Amino acid sequence: VQLVESGGGLVQPGGSLRLSCLASGISGSLFNIAAMGWYRQAPGKQRESVAGITSGGKTTYVDSVKGRFTISRDNAKNTVYLQMNSLKPEDMAVYYCNFWGLSPEGYSNWGQGTQVTVSS
Fold first, then answer.
1. Is 42:50 a contact under the CB 8 Å cutoff?
2. Cα–Cα distance between 2 and 4 in angstroms, integer?
3. CB 53 within 8 A of CB 80
4. pLDDT-based confidence at 27, cuts 50/70/90?
């Protein structure tokens, strides 16, 4: 499975970004039943879980992003999205997507990630 993240960039505090993650090398039927999630890693910190979405659309968020981030998926496109609003400097990190259900250390296959920079 190849995971390709995109959509990052430089944004001012309070701004918004929408990240996308395309999963290739996986059949649509398997993607449809897979829980997917977003993770992030800030400089000098461990990778952390941010948001997850089950095949049925149930979502989970880390407390620090609740009310600001929204995860969604388009099974027809094998794509997962992360809408990020009211961005804060502490959200600055490289964002990755992957399957959801284990801690980040449980996954060995990662994409290149997409950099999110929040700065004025």
1. no
2. 6
3. yes
4. confident
